[in-house]
Design brief:
Structural class: mainly alpha
Order of helices and strands: HH
InterPro entries: Tandem_5TM
Number of strands: 0
Oligomer: single chain
Pfam families: DUF443
Distance between the termini: 45 Å
Number of domains: 1
Organism: Staphylococcus aureus
Protein name: DUF443 family protein
Largest sheet: none
Keywords: Membrane, Transmembrane, Transmembrane helix
Length: about 55
């Protein structure tokens, strides 16, 4: 996916700044979704342990 964006970034001359900003935003969203899913799993594990006992 990022290779495709880099190819578009190199081939386009007018809209390369917009494509680069969109690529950075998508990368940041990917990392934020991963961090939130990891935090969410830890919270669920804590809740499940507290409900069992």
């Amino acid at each position: 996916l990022s290779i495709m964006f880099l190819d578009v970034l190199i081939s386009l001359s007018i809209q390369n700044i917009i494509v680069f900003i969109a690529w950075v935003i998508m990368t940041m969203l990917f990392f934020f979704i991963n961090m939130s899913s990891i935090i969410d799993k830890k919270i669920h594990v804590i809740y499940l342990r507290s409900y069992k006992y």
